[in-house]
Amino acid sequence: MVSPSTLFAPAATEFIDRHPQQPSPEQVELRDGLLDQPAHVDPKFLYDALGSALFTAITQLPEYYPTRCEAEIFQRHGAAIARHVGPVQAMIDLGAGDCVKAERLFASLRPRHYVPIDISADYLQSAVRRLRLSYPELQITALGQDYTHALALPADIPAAQRLFFYPGSSIGNLSPEDALAMLRRIRGQCEGGGLLVGVDRVKPAQVLEPAYDDALHLTAAFNLNLLRHVNRLLDADFDVADWRHVARFDSARSRIEMHLEALRAVRVAWPGGQREFGAGERIHTENSYKFTPQSFAALLGSAGYRDVAHWSDSRGWFSVFSARA
To answer: The Histidine-specific methyltransferase SAM-dependent domain covers which part of the protein (predicted)?
Structure first.
């Protein structure tokens, strides 16, 4: 099990291994995705240190409404949400990033133990240093891990007192099947506890698409930075100048899709493999599914949750759901 102490280990003793190294699971996942038809890269790879910082900047853009809508809901309905959630021993923040969203709820939810989880461990470590100065009485266990496939939590947190916090409509990055599996996995970790989750709602394309293709091109930089992250992880040779950012709303699937599109024919290589991309060929980097309140409530029901409540912003663009496991 995971140690209750913070999982940022000190530097290990140097060891030089002359044996050939096997590819890591991350490298295998990236290689398989790039060789697939069509090519794809999981959106978790958007979040290295620079990607996380760029996303924080994106949330300040006028086009990017989800963060403001979610903040409005917590401001207008915070007392009702806290009553529905009930007592919180441990607040487990999935995709915590800079931890600001959870921090804004500390006063109303009053967790005794805060467990932020993010794939970008360096970015998370910086955020946790700030929190420790501001909340010296709060127990903090920061986990640098990919929570999309497995959740390894400290053993000393009773399941019945766990609140999973999954804000920003990150659940929308998963396919409906994967979202259902994730919700079930969370429920299995907090029997008797609960889930507080942000959900983006169906809207016209003229509202949705600018949120993912803004006038300052910050989202484009965020998406293109993925190629640099892939280069580091896979020792590949993507040239960012060969690609452009594309975002569109697929109304049939009720999702925004983000792609990287080759501006010209290119060949990309990495140790033991390569792929040629034709001009106009795309790498699928992210989906963001949009829900109606009814469709997401049904998804929670299918995952086994009960006592479901939700609150919306004044325009009905975003919802926050609270559910018991």
So the answer is: 29-324
Which helix (H) or strand (E) segment is 84 a member of?
Answer: helix 66-85
Identify residue 207 by its one-letter amino acid code.
Answer: V
Q: What is the pLDDT of residue 21?
A: 66
Q: Give the domain CATH number at 103.
A: 3.40.50.150
Q: For residue 29, what are its two tokens? A: 């996942």
Instruction: Show the domain range for 261.
Output: 36-59+206-289
According to DSSP, the β-strands at 194-200 and 39-40 are: unpaired
List pLDDT tens digits, range 224-264.
999 999 999 999 999 999 999 999 999 999 999 999 999 99
Residues 145 and 184 in one domain: yes
Regarding beta strands 306-312 and 318-324, do their DSSP bridges make them parallel or antiparallel, or are they unpaired?
A: antiparallel
Q: What gap in Å lies between CA 36 and CA 116, rounded to an integer?
A: 33
Helix (H) or strand (E) holding 82: helix 66-85
Helix (H) or strand (E) holding 106, with range, is helix 106-109
* Whole-angstrom distance, CA of residue 22 vs CA of residue 248: 38
Closest CA to 97 of 139, 61, 133, 130: 130
